[in-house]
Amino acid sequence: MLAQALCLFYLLTTVIGPAPVTGKRYQATWSSLDSRPLPTWYDEAKFGIFVHWGVFSVPGFGSEWFWWHWQGQNPPDQKCVAYMTQNYPPGFTYPDFAPQFHAQFFDPDNWADIFQASGAKYVVLTSKHHEGFTTWPSSYSWNWNSVDDGPHRDLVGDLGQAIRNRSLHYGLYNSLYEWFNPLYLADKNNKFKTQDFVFKKLLPELTDLVLRYKPELIWSDGDWEAPDTYWNSTEFLAWLYNDSPVKDVVVTNDRWGAGCYCKHGGYYNCADKYSPGELPDHKWEKCQSVDTQSWGYRKNIKLAELMDLPSIVKDLVQTVAMGGNYLLNVGPTSDGMIPTVFEERLRGMGGWLAVNGEAIYASKPWRVQKENATVPVWYTSSSDGSSVYAVFFTKPQSFSFQLYEPLTVQTTTVTLLGTTGPLRWSPLHPAGLVILLPDIPFTTGRAWTLKLDWVQ
Ligand SMILES: *[C@@H]1O[C@H](CO)[C@@H](O)[C@H](O)[C@H]1NC(C)=O
Ligand SMILES: *[C@@H]1O[C@H](CO)[C@@H](O)[C@H](O)[C@H]1NC(C)=O
Ligand SMILES: *[C@@H]1O[C@H](CO)[C@@H](O)[C@H](O)[C@H]1NC(C)=O
Q: From what superkingdom does this record's organism come (predicted)?
């Protein structure tokens, strides 16, 4: 049977030529895996929501690294030690937080409504952070998952249904390492010459995660202590790209082993919150958190520690102008609520994108990314290049607005998104134009977009 199939394959390939690119199989090498074209939905989406939710949301103190800061690092963080001695009985362990992860107000449809209202096109949820607790019923994480303990609910599955029902793309964050997993610690003790954790826990679990939930994005993390050969990352990715149920749609990032980031994988995250100084030649994503101090929820959060809406809008625009995607993080409470201040930020993003979204979604970087015009502007262009968008964040002092980079022709038209009618303009020499602005409309996002048709 196999021989027959092979014969047929040879016949077909010799008669009609090589298999199309989509049928390409990838080898478990970086050169092969890195040659895979990124599925197109991802670059078009531009804006996603990151959700850090887990047992760390219960103490809600410091950050999602609480357990490590309290009991992992040497010396421990005295603030975390004091927080525990002052508020919890002696002998209280980190796993004792899990039964307090109630998620009693978790309404996946409400979350998905908020994410959709933000204008985001994809959502990435923590399926397992470095603590090792899975937010889905992993049989490789017995008694340390959200169905055996805590909410007694499949959080990954329930949110996924609501996300997909709104035609948003669904991605899952997964930490490769687990701070205190005995199998991992034994491998680490053996200088990663053994791979018991990888073969008995990580890979079966990650494969099961893919088969169950069919994520369109895998946001890998926690890779940095060991090389990709320890994690068997290239073997896993070859399976993901060749034989998994998401082989044609799945997108991955670059955290697949020490030294991998910014070099190998799908798109590049590089470091957390990283932005390149100039236009990169590889797709990338900036992850950023509304709470500048933490990805997970904190009970003692202060308004001054949060990004305000104009700074988030500006960060999104600058990222997209540089060819990046923007993944904006919120940390829900252990009760299952998205703090209202985060919800307000997300709805504000949606309000700004409803007017200015054509400068963002499915856009391409223009030949110039930014210039100091009358005020600083950042450029994007429509995917077919017929429109150029100039976004600015400072209200100009006068009605005459100069751009120096665009090359106009007589038929060039200029509009301000959110207002009607073309604007009057005249050319500057040797390049550029001066535009007569209307009254700048009020926007809570404090950013405005000039759309230029027929410029180069
Ligand atoms: C979302 O759910 C509603 C109600 O169950 C259903 O009518 C609709 O077809 C679903 N949409 C998608 C895209 O799954
Ligand atoms: C892990 O990688 C090694 C070396 O490439 C390979 O022999 C082995 O089959 C892989 N195991 C899994 C489970 O992918
Ligand atoms: C714009 O002006 C700022 C401040 O004067 C300067 O730092 C920056 O390099 C300029 N940017 C460009 C693109 O010319």
A: Eukaryota
- DSSP secondary structure string for all residues of 391-455: EE-S--SSSEEEESSPPEEEEEEEEETTS-SPPPEEE-SSS-EEEE--PPPP-TT--EEEEEEEE
Q: How far is the CA of 378 from the centre of ligand 3 (A)?
A: 12
Q: Which residues line ligand 1 at a C-beta cut-off of 6 Å?
A: 165, 167
The rounded Å distance from CA 124 to ligand 2 centre is 28
Cα of 161 vs centre of ligand 1, distance in Å, is 10
The residue nearest atom 1 of ligand 3, judged by CA position, is: 372
User: What confidence tens digit (pLDDT) does each residue in 325-340 have?
Assistant: 999 999 999 999 999 9
Q: What's the pTM value of the predicted model, to 2 decimals? A: 0.94
Separation CA 64–CA 222 (nearest Å): 13
Atom of ligand 1 nearest to the CA of 167: 13
Tell me whether strands 387-392 and 376-381 are parallel, antiparallel or unpaired: antiparallel
Which residues are CB-contacts of 397 (< 8 A; sequence separation ≥ 6)?
none
Whether ligand 2 lies within 6 angstroms of the CB of 203 is answered as yes
Among candidate residues 152, 195, 150, the one with its CA nearest the CA of residue 176: 195
pLDDT, one tens digit per residue, over 402-442 is 999 999 999 999 999 999 989 999 999 999 999 999 999 99
Pairwise CA distance, residues 339 & 333, whole Å: 7
pLDDT over 70 for what percent of the chain?
A: 95
| Ligand located closest to 377 CA | 3
Which residue, judged by its Cα, is nearest atom 6 of ligand 3?
A: 372
List the beta bridge partners of residue 364: 381
Ligand 1 mean position, distance from CA 342 (Å): 26
Confidence of residue 242 (pLDDT cuts 50, 70, 90): very high
Rg (CA), the chain: 24
pLDDT at 375: 97
**Cβ contact 390:423 at 8 Å:** no
Tell me the β-bridge partners of 145.
134
Residue 277 alpha carbon to ligand 3 centre in Å: 13
Which alpha helices (H) appear in 278-418, and where do they start and end? Answer: 309-321, 340-356
Q: How far is the CA of 108 from the centre of ligand 1 (A)?
A: 14
What is the distance between the alpha carbons of residues 425 and 437, in angstroms, rounded to a whole number? 9
